[in-house]
């Protein structure tokens, strides 16, 4: 299999991996569906098709009177139209009779429009005297109402399989009477590597060592996105320990994330391990981004596996998660736009030195005036705590000045 030997541009790398792994992949259903209130963040297992129209009946958007709009033609405060008040539409049920010519029925917000009515005259535009309504406004058909099926019709596709759900979608399931959501069964193992990396409970941390940050970041990252994740611990920088730990993860998980041990030091054995997995195997051994260059991408078709080797530096690891892993997960699920960062043009609020020849991502805090770049180095662990996203400087871009328009990628919630 041809491996990208040199660091390659991010877009090129993504295209290659998506093509070689044949994304999107079929989504195995989760055994137990998701409770509706827990579904936010998870991928949807099956396309959601509307089982009924919405609204299910034509309804009023205002308190007032259900009318035939044509009967208000020409009405104004000076020349009102007079219509007979024939009764009231009850809330939670249909009108007892259709709207007859020359008449109106009193109706409340959310009330069911009686047959014959095609608009609602607001209370503010009417005066009631002795069983007559004086309409001071001419209405257009549809004014102050939503018609049955206006938003969507029975049979319409509302959400596609693989799209990442959030709280905006929960109400749609509720409207269709669904208290549970079909989910996707996805498993992942996260492995940290490095002799200097110690478990988080280590206290005090021996000199020269650091607590495992990436393992927890990646575990949380995937859990919030619907994966059953196991943090498989910290593997020693030794070929045998790495191979054994990796083998187990490969056998049991759809997605395997490794952190550390990817750059050029003699102890960096990950590449060796990744070159042994079945075809297409190791596809990428470096992405032309900063931070995050020593990123490895591998995968197999039988069994279906995606493997990502992250750089050990925590900010580099997180940057790769948002800019490389998310697009791959989106392609895997067949719904890239619901998984990836939203992009926007923003004003840069400080001068920033960027290097030509590499695509750079700098954490940034959004303000109404523009985006402030935050201090960052790839080894920082807290650089994203106030970040709303990343300023992106494409390969050809050098130093940018305060006031210039630049691209900003929002971190998905
Ligand atoms: N001579 C060169 N050295 C380095 C290069 C290079 O091209 N030539 N690339 C640099 C870049 S860029 C990065 S990023 C790092 C990535 O290195 P590795 O992926 O091999 O990671 P490690 O060497 O294992 O660790 C780097 C750094 O991160 C700390 N680390 C590792 N794992 C964790 C973890 N789970 N939680 C917190 N911190 C972690 C580790 O202690 C190191 O300080 O390589 C550069 N070097
Ligand atoms: O990818 Mo590395 O992040 O620049 O230190």
TrEMBL record:
EC number(s) per entry: 2.10.1.1
Lineage, broadest ranks: Bacteria, Thermotogati, Synergistota, Synergistia, Synergistales
Pathway: Cofactor biosynthesis; molybdopterin biosynthesis
Assigned GO CC terms: cytosol
All copies of domain MoaB/Mog, residue ranges: 189-331
GO molecular function: metal ion binding; molybdopterin molybdotransferase activity
Keywords tagged on the record: Magnesium, Metal-binding, Molybdenum, Molybdenum cofactor biosynthesis, Transferase
Biological role stated in the UniProt entry: Catalyzes the insertion of molybdate into adenylated molybdopterin with the concomitant release of AMP.
GO terms (BP aspect): Mo-molybdopterin cofactor biosynthetic process
Cofactor: Mg(2+)
UniProt keyword annotation of Repressor present: no
Originating organism: Aminomonas paucivorans DSM 12260
Keyword Metal-binding: yes
Protein name, per record: Molybdopterin molybdenumtransferase
Similarity comment: family membership: Belongs to the MoeA family.
Known catalytic reactions: adenylyl-molybdopterin + molybdate = Mo-molybdopterin + AMP + H(+)
């Amino acid at each position: 299999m041809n491996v990208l030997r040199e660091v390659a541009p991010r877009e090129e790398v993504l295209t290659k991996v998506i093509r070689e792994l044949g994304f999107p992949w079929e989504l195995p259903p989760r055994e137990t569906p998701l409770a509706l209130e827990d579904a936010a963040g998870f991928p949807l297992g099956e396309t959601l098709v509307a089982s009924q129209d919405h609204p299910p009946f034509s309804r009023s958007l205002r308190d007032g009177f259900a009318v035939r709009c044509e009967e208000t033609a020409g009405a104004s405060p000076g020349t009102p139209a007079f219509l007979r008040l024939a009764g009231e539409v009850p809330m939670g049920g249909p009108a007892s009779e259709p709207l007859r010519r020359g008449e109106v029925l009193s109706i409340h917000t959310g009330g069911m429009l009686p047959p014959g009515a095609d608009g609602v005259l607001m209370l503010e535009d009417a005066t009631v005297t002795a069983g007559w309504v004086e309409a001071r406004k001419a209405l257009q058909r549809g004014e102050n109402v939503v018609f049955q099926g206006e938003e969507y019709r029975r049979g319409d596709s509302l959400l596609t399989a693989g799209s990442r759900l959030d709280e905006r979608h929960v109400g749609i399931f509720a409207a269709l009477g669904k208290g549970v959501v079909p989910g996707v069964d996805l498993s992942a193992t996260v492995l940290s590597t490095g002799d200097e990396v110690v478990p988080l409970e280590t206290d005090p941390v021996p000199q020269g060592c650091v607590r495992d940050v990436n393992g927890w970041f990646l575990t949380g990252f995937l859990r919030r996105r619907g994966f059953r994740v196991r943090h498989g611990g910290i593997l020693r920088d030794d070929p045998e320990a790495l191979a054994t730990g990796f083998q187990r993860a490969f056998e049991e998980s759809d997605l395997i994330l490794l952190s550390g041990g990817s750059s050029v030091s003699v102890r960096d054995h990950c590449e060796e391990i990744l070159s042994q997995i079945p075809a297409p195997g190791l596809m990428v051994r470096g992405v032309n981004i900063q931070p995050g260059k020593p990123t490895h991408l591998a995968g197999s078709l039988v069994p279906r596996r995606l493997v990502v080797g992250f750089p050990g530096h925590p900010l580099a690891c997180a940057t790769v998660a948002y800019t490389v892993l998310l697009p791959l997960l989106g392609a895997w699920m067949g719904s890239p736009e619901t998984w990836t960062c939203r992009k926007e043009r923003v004003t840069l609020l400080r001068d920033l030195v960027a290097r030509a020849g590499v695509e750079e991502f700098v954490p940034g805090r959004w303000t109404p005036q523009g985006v402030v770049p935050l201090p960052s180095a790839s080894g920082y662990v807290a650089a994203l705590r106030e970040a709303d996203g990343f300023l992106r400087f494409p390969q050809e871009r050098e130093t940018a000045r305060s006031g210039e328009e630049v691209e900003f990628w929002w971190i998905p919630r």
